[in-house]
Design brief:
Layout (H helix, E strand, L loop, with lengths): L9 H4 L17 E2 L11 H9 L13 H10 L7 E4 L2 H12 L6 E5 L4 H9 L3 E5 L9 H5 L5 E5 L11 H10 L3 E5 L20 E6 L12 E5 L1 H10 L7 H12 L1 H25 L2 E2 L6 E5 L8 H13 L2 E2 L1 E2 L10 E4 L3 H15 L3
Parallel strand pairs: 1-11, 3-4, 3-5, 5-6, 6-7
Antiparallel strand pairs: 2-8, 7-8, 9-10, 10-13, 12-13
């Protein structure tokens, strides 16, 4: 057989796949604070609904995830035809690239931001335009986005990896000047003070994506949704895989979204733990960006020193202690920081104990 490379598309020949955070084996005993998962299990109602679907696995699921679309629409006071369901929000981001990007239609993104955007554009053969931040405050570069000339722009709000929240007025300023398709990726919006959904009625070029991985503890089921005008949803549906969400995922997501009491309980606990950890970092004198997500982006210091070597050293020290966090050394805006997911209270205590131990080292 000839080499597969001889038969690859030109886009795939230059493609670089996405690299997720370390996923340890289930046998490893680690504190996992590197992929922004929810530290709490899903609602017990999820278990009940998922188990109830097992006897029906001989049947195909609803191709449109119709009941789930209705549930999401009701949750956000929208019409059912303004909702589309995906196999995680990554599936929906991929649909956006399929529909609105190619070798002639460019993709824009904040730089740095969620690197999957670049991966998806690469597969599609689309050029990526990165709009840089002015400094480590990660203020929204409105003018840069508006003048980017791209057909599709991904704006992560709250921003990743910084956790920075963007206000409704800032987002609207972007939408007023941007003529392409704007995707506001709200993967972490349930931990923030506000969201962009009120803007949907004013801007027909807006798509908002959400995931159930973070605030609903369903990272293992892969469920997300997008909100947009009926016209945009219709376009995305044309590119969607027919049965893109299995029966178990649909049932589990419905149960999770319906249990508002459990959602609000875990949400408030995570926010409280996040603010408590931020206070501890402030006491240490670490520059820590106020977060609207389930993680903190902080600049470690030891004996008054900060920088890439300090951040890398703490990352390795914690890894050797069995604590996984995330380090992004490829950008000058992130190379001196660590991103730390919020875990349970006991995990946060262990984390701080190890950090204090590291600070005493020469």
């Amino acid at each position: 057989m000839s080499s597969p490379e001889k038969h690859l598309s030109a886009a795939l020949l230059s493609h670089k796949p996405y690299t997720p955070g370390i996923q340890p084996n289930f046998t490893e005993r680690v504190i996992k604070l590197n992929t922004n998962e929810n530290p709490f299990p899903p609602s017990e109602k999820v278990r009940e609904k998922v188990l109830s679907e097992i006897e029906s696995l001989n049947l195909y699921p609803s191709p449109r995830s119709s009941a789930l679309r209705d549930c999401v629409a009701n949750l956000h006071s929208l019409a059912e035809n303004q909702v589309i369901i995906g196999n995680g929000s990554d599936d929906l981001l991929n649909l956006c690239v399929r529909c609105f990007a190619d070798e002639n239609l460019k993709v824009g993104m904040l730089a740095p931001s969620y690197s999957l955007y670049e991966t998806l554009a690469s597969i599609q053969g689309a050029k990526v335009v990165g709009i840089s931040f002015a400094n480590e405050n990660f203020e929204l570069p409105v003018e840069g986005i508006v003048s980017s000339g791209v057909n599709l722009f991904f704006l992560t709000s709250p921003h990743a990896p910084s956790g920075k929240e963007y206000g409704l007025a800032e987002l609207e300023e972007v939408l007023q000047g941007f003529s392409g398709i704007m995707v506001i990726d709200e993967a972490y919006a349930d931990f923030a003070g506000h969201h962009a959904i009120p803007l949907l009625s004013k801007y027909p070029n807006l798509i908002i994506t959400r995931t159930l991985s973070k605030s609903y503890s369903l990272a293992g089921l892969r469920v997300g949704y997008a909100l947009a005008s009926p016209a945009l949803v219709e376009v995305l549906d044309q590119a969607r895989e027919v049965y893109n969400l299995d029966r178990l995922a649909q049932a589990g997501a419905l149960a999770a979204l319906s249990d508002r009491e459990y959602f609000q309980s875990t949400q408030s606990q995570i926010i409280k733990l996040r603010e408590g950890l931020r206070e501890e970092f402030i006491v240490l004198g670490w520059h820590t960006i106020p977060s609207g997500a389930n993680f903190l982006f902080t600049k470690p210091s030891r004996q008054g020193e900060t920088g890439p070597e300090v951040a890398s050293d703490l990352y390795e020290f914690l890894h050797n202690c069995g604590i996984l966090v995330r380090y992004f050394p490829k950008s000058h805006l992130t190379e001196s920081y660590l991103r730390i997911s919020i875990g349970k209270q006991a995990e946060m205590r262990i984390l701080m104990d190890r950090i204090r131990e590291w600070q005493t080292q020469e």
